[in-house]
Fold each of these.
Amino acid sequence: MKIVLLAGGVGGAKLAFGLSKILPPKDLTVVVNVGDDFTHLGLRICPDLDTVTYTLAGLDNRETGWGVAGDTFQALGALNKLDGPTWFRLGDRDLATHLWRTALLAQGLRLTEATSRICEALGVGPAVLPATDAAVPTRVVTDAGELDFQDYFVRRRCEPRVHRIVFRAIEAAAPTAEVLAAFQGADGIVFAPSNPFVSIEPVLALAGVRELIARKPAVAVSPIVGGEAIKGPAAKIMRELGLDVSPVGVAKRYADIIDGFLMDDVDAALAPAVQALGLEVRTAQSIMRTDADRESLARECLDLLAGLT
Amino acid sequence: MKIVLLAGGVGGAKLAFGLSKILPPKDLTVVVNVGDDFTHLGLRICPDLDTVTYTLAGLDNRETGWGVAGDTFQALGALNKLDGPTWFRLGDRDLATHLWRTALLAQGLRLTEATSRICEALGVGPAVLPATDAAVPTRVVTDAGELDFQDYFVRRRCEPRVHRIVFRAIEAAAPTAEVLAAFQGADGIVFAPSNPFVSIEPVLALAGVRELIARKPAVAVSPIVGGEAIKGPAAKIMRELGLDVSPVGVAKRYADIIDGFLMDDVDAALAPAVQALGLEVRTAQSIMRTDADRESLARECLDLLAGLT
């Protein structure tokens, strides 16, 4: 069963890890959001690609949810002494990834190719694909003005109130040939429990992606559990946009292109409202604290997908 | 007494340090070779500027002669795992300098301004000036072809036989306004015991520099002691170019624009040959192992200069 996982950062990376424990590498493709990508100190930084790659390579820092486990911060400390910017916490080993990716892109490689080179060197088996090779920076329109995503997310710690999320360059961007082929060849598609607005929808917004997914069995995992996001600003953004902060609110956003929805056991009472959207519903323990949790949730997703057909 | 020191890497940095212990910061300007500069992994790396800056800031690594004392190599280790290039040994703290310089240049600052910002942040008092803001890469024509300087010097460890040293872009390059002003305002000029071919001459080759120096009291310190270079490939290059590997050979290269020459006590027998070039000669213990050695050699240079007038 060939599976494509749509992933943002931490939630997507954990579910990718779980799926990678069940599926042979050739049967798993992770299509990753690049809307958070930015250039900082001349380095092309792809936070979601890195989180997925580090997690699949077993290098992820489980305490922070970003960066490399056991990384040091000597360069950042020296940058601080130089009065350089330190709001984006670059670890020393993490820096190597950004330096090498930037160098590979400067050599003319596509982001897809640079990512593949990095994954291969780190022994990552499943294909990790940026959703597009184009730059499609997500912008956040807030009380403090229109901000770059990392400015909003990291520097300002998601504090400004969000009015709108904008994908500025999305009309001109196309999914890569590799992404199109993965969707076309998929037996099932899984939406990770990632932020709908800033992780999943920048992928869905690429030309043709919604149509391709609509033709395939597809399930989504709710990133909202008990009225809060498992991690990150999804709940805060939903509230500020006046949306229903619940699995139902998330399911509505995907209902036209998915067939099944997986949400946490604590939200079981909401199952009828999701079923009313025409979706197959399953509840499970969906918070991934351990490797076993990751694999267990992955299995639930595959079971839900298998039961659809 | 306002002094301008012409410097390459380690020898120039040590003498700059010695002079900085004697002269008030406003009276010392170090004009630094940028012919060794190169771009690596997208980073603008200026080995001589960094060696001078780190040494004046007290951060220099005295064991290696390059980089920051106590630096770590986590990023380089991670780059190695990514199959990236590791022949240029970038320390983590050192990386911060290259990242920040590259970012400042990308913001539109001149190299002179970026260097000034870095020096200020590190508490370096004397002015440290790149000889030019232009890129003037030194090329080494060897048995193995025409090589970038760092390729010859670091990657190939100076092993290929040198036929010629070429300053490719030098005709189009000008010394900066700051460098011109420093020479014009100088009461004396000192050539550090740096490599004549790849450290001092790329500065002298800039338009107008020889003429400005010729008008001022100027002394040079021999980088050749007892028939060998104190450090680096100067002696090997001189041999391969068929030149006299001795203080006399060095003095001949500068004789038309300097007035005094300082060489090591061990070469005292060669003093008449240097005097025959029309130069005032002084011998001293010129190998700088300790801080006291650095200051002592600096004092010898200032005394020699003072005695000229």
Note: The interface with chain B takes residues 41-43, 68, 71-72, 74-79, 81-84, 91-97, 99-100, 102-103, 106, 117-118, 121-122 of chain A (CB under 8 Å).
Amino acid sequence: MNLLTWDKKSFIIDGKRGFLRSGEFHYFRVPKKDWKRRLDLFKKAGGNCVATYVPWCLHEPEEGKFLFGDCDERDVETFFKLCKDAGLYVQCRPGPYVYSELYCHGLPRWLCENYQEILARNAKGEIFQYQSISYLHPRFLAKVANWYDKVVPIINKYSVDNGGPIALAQVDNELMGIHEWFGSLDYNRASMGIGVRNGRYPEFLKKRYGRIGFLNKAYSAKFADFHKVMPLPEISQKTVEDRRRVKDYQDFYFQSCAEYLAILSIMLRKRGVKLPITHNSGNPSMNSYFHETIGYTGSKEFILGSDHYYNLSQDWDQNNPTPKYAGKCFYSNEMLRLYGFPPTIFELPGGSQAAWPPSLPEDMNCAYMLNVAFGMKGFNYYVYTGGPDNPQNISYKNNYDYNAFVSGDGKIRPTFKMMEGFHKFLIRNRWLAEAELVSDFQIGLDWEQTRSHHYFSSRGDFLFGNNEAWQFLQKGITMTALNNSYTPGFSDLYSDAILREKSKPLFVPTSACMAEHVQERLVKFVKSGGRLIIAPVIPYLDENFNPCTVLSKFLGGARSEAGTSPKVIAPAFKIGQTLMRDKYFVFTAVPRNAEIIARAQDKEAVVGFKNKVGKGTVVALGYQWHHSYDEHSNVFRHLLELAGAGRTVVTCDNPNIWAVVRSDGKRSMLFVMNLFASPQKANVLVRGKAGKIRIAKSFRLAPMAVETVMI
Amino acid sequence: MNLLTWDKKSFIIDGKRGFLRSGEFHYFRVPKKDWKRRLDLFKKAGGNCVATYVPWCLHEPEEGKFLFGDCDERDVETFFKLCKDAGLYVQCRPGPYVYSELYCHGLPRWLCENYQEILARNAKGEIFQYQSISYLHPRFLAKVANWYDKVVPIINKYSVDNGGPIALAQVDNELMGIHEWFGSLDYNRASMGIGVRNGRYPEFLKKRYGRIGFLNKAYSAKFADFHKVMPLPEISQKTVEDRRRVKDYQDFYFQSCAEYLAILSIMLRKRGVKLPITHNSGNPSMNSYFHETIGYTGSKEFILGSDHYYNLSQDWDQNNPTPKYAGKCFYSNEMLRLYGFPPTIFELPGGSQAAWPPSLPEDMNCAYMLNVAFGMKGFNYYVYTGGPDNPQNISYKNNYDYNAFVSGDGKIRPTFKMMEGFHKFLIRNRWLAEAELVSDFQIGLDWEQTRSHHYFSSRGDFLFGNNEAWQFLQKGITMTALNNSYTPGFSDLYSDAILREKSKPLFVPTSACMAEHVQERLVKFVKSGGRLIIAPVIPYLDENFNPCTVLSKFLGGARSEAGTSPKVIAPAFKIGQTLMRDKYFVFTAVPRNAEIIARAQDKEAVVGFKNKVGKGTVVALGYQWHHSYDEHSNVFRHLLELAGAGRTVVTCDNPNIWAVVRSDGKRSMLFVMNLFASPQKANVLVRGKAGKIRIAKSFRLAPMAVETVMI
């Protein structure tokens, strides 16, 4: 029986729905004599779980020499016993990678130094960092197996099914970060099987293309066989054919990472681990890299979370949680929800690796509360407490203080009290763990767009690129919506669930490319009565850049072309011109009987139309923006009106203040957010089902403040 | 007689020293009927000047058809009269470029469309934006002359020497932005004289190398003659020779821009303009592009200012003024001061082109006050007021509201009152216009480092690059100093003035390259009793990457090598290891009798030494950092102590609060700054000359607050 589990709604802890409130606690960094006190403090402050890495480098300092319990910093068993005594569950993270500001990111140094054949390589075959491993290299996996042989029995001994505290087991850490952040995707020829007959890469290509002739046509190449194909570096893409080749390699790379994660999971299972398995995506933009992984693991015995930092050094964009950060948290949580998980942030900032810029309590509380407002159901502070030691010389830093709630040397920081207050809020409002966002419309998520920046680094010959559409979703649609009190929810365009969500308009940012099954699903959506908004172009290719005009045919042969007139957009949109940096497109044809809603001023070309199909509606606009001006709000509101969105649940008279409602059906809570550094005022009004006003309230918000009201 | 002038200390307005308090006011955007009211409002609010573009595109809508006064939006003369009536000086900015969110950045569209030969080109010869002109193209300059023929007489008619309000005349706008932001440096072959015998580019090279053989040696090439040399694109640099070729072109480009600015100035003078001429660098990092320009113009009849925005759209790093922004303002003001000007911000944000993210009064006031703390002596809000019109269809936007103090349609925003309060502060403390920063040590500014990112985009084979040294100056030395209450001043390493500034230690961030004259000056500085700190390497090349070991010889043949041991730095620095992302270097030799202050732990190699030379001292440390950890503070403080810096003027117990003192010799003011989004406390103490405590005070600072106290 598992005491810590979940379904897609929330975590279920000791049989009750509630928030996972975990804190990272590195036994190897904190002095052993202070373990108990710091654990008890966290329990008393409302925590219900701790997480710890078990660093491979620490416990196998020389190859084959495994050490557990020989000294304080390796006495992991005592630590687990104390967690049990404190009444805290444990998420155990035994690597192989753990990162954590350790040398070799937590791998044993002997491994990186003595087995250079296992290192990841860029497309040119060069090693880019000697701590970056090629995940599927057989020699690496064999060494991992040796490590798991020794560490897993300890995990089993202290797992909940044996009466212990360990409830979750993580494999690896921030998968792919080690490649993407320090070099490129991994092109290690041995582990990727590049250039080898029946190698993994040629087999992947064979499965995708069937015959080499088809691949040659797709790549505009003359390879004699699949194993003769060499991948191209990301930056080399110039033609559609090159881009296709780069994208194929990316898909293969993500597939390989999924296999790696599956292999690690199987290794745990084979060694008797019955616990749910966890993993954390390195940041919101990497969530979508796990699409293939979820395909393997499902969402019952495995949970993917994400890491939501807002500042780890002065090189980060901002010092505090901003609307941009909130927007990322929003789509990150929504992606995790669409994967089927209760959105969990396995690394929520409990401080920062840098002492400066500082981790201040008001900023941190604001970050936590906005994550709750946007759907977080569980979290793990990274870190709850640091330590003064650099045990066994495995870390860059002597003092791993991390500006945490409890400092390296054991002092309680002002942030501790804030954290305690945050827990009290979550415990008092346990029902929020089941609550859902009350949305006014849906945004269609095309997973391909969200991970296209490697192969859409330039638009090339495409009318509008995948990465541009993804930026439009984030900086245009989402930001304009929230600034106008329209609360969006996200819909998975890869799932037929959208066919059952017809009560609200669906806004899909489009690029030149859209998979055939997505195009078909959108047609079905409209035919069955859905209201669809698309902007700024009609796709004319599928996700592999082959012609695909399902949507275009459905819309009377409508095709998009770049607009050339300097002035566009009909008066109804209250915008008389193109604005700086905005792009617009014209439609070469429109459905018969379509209502024209926008034209290019000089040439009378159609820039937007509305078409009714039975009970369904399509609104198409050849315009995209990053939210900057009131004109963008006008365009957005008018589009939503054309799609019959009706009155919003929330009305807020200050566009810089965001207000959303979460509800479990019985209870509802209004979250009002000032994500700026100056104090602000706002008048907020919430309507119930029949349009009746449920609450109207004036707020005076401090900087970086999230206020809540039960309604 | 000029009523608005300056010296290096401050502006002198109507014979009195004080701040230039100007506001941008576009007559062509504001309804004429409201000109007087808005001008009077600004005067009443404490302004003493307004600035306006006179857009070429507006007044010469068709080639040869010059229109002034035919309609309200072109009635510039009435506007000048009203400025005079209101008692406001005018800074007149007639272009040719004015930017200002106008089509073609303010150039007439007929010019860009009908004369494509004048467009700027990238190194491949491609046009990158059809509104980006090649400044020195003869046809362009001829068209500018026609424009000046018509507009300058109006400027003269209303200039102060004729009893009018115009006191300053600006040429062009944010020079080079039009190239750098939209493409690259300009390689237009005609105007740059590329590939032409006796062309400007070959002549420049001939002057630099004398004989083609020397150039061929420097470039590792075989050109038959100077006019056969083709420039390389910035990104192509792979070898030292290529880098040299890229840098030569950059120097030539900056030289060309200086010539352009000089030509425009001469055009004004020839047409009778007696006013001082102004120009604004596009942002702090572009100030150093004007080194050649100042060589031409001097600082008597010409003044260069800079533009200090912190947010113009959601794509900017932050929404509010942060320490990073303050750091940029600091070095920007110091650069302007070292050029010989009273630091002037010709575009200080009076709002933002985007309505969102918002321009909030607390953030803006904080930005203004930190600029005063760091030396601003004059400013022009961009913009004081916007307008509701898009006159003559010259702008992207109908409503140029700019979130300004007075909105496009004439309403007074909450920011207006804040601006009024800021002016009151400046008027009440007029003496601040003459005040100087009370510094504890000097930072040596090597101009070459500050503009090296085009040719140091990678470090290549260099031990430590120019751009890395520039980052170290900003993110390491300056940030660590301010966080530790050490106030830096900047010293110009190109000037012998450093030889007269020996009362304080001089900290020079070094790269592999340093001009011979700078190396010699530093040797002289030490020999004559100066205390010099250098980190992290001993230069071994001059600014053109030729061997230059003046400093090395002076230091007993000391050379730097990359450190390889994983652990470094002596215990005195209270740092036991290398920290993440930090780099360290060892010295292969040290001066005889040098005191070793740091070693690599594994290999005993020297990482730092101190050497006394007569009364002078050199402290050298093979270590660089971006401020992140307390360890960086320890290293910094210990270096300053070794150089005998003594007690700081200010002591602040909160490292996140910056505190500096400005003084005119008689009066002093303490500025205490919270540049974070959370409220903070600090205890601050200021000492006088004999170390006597002048003030000790506790502060509770709101987010984004700058408090001042007379001491």
Note: DSSP finds 19 helices and 28 strands in chain B.
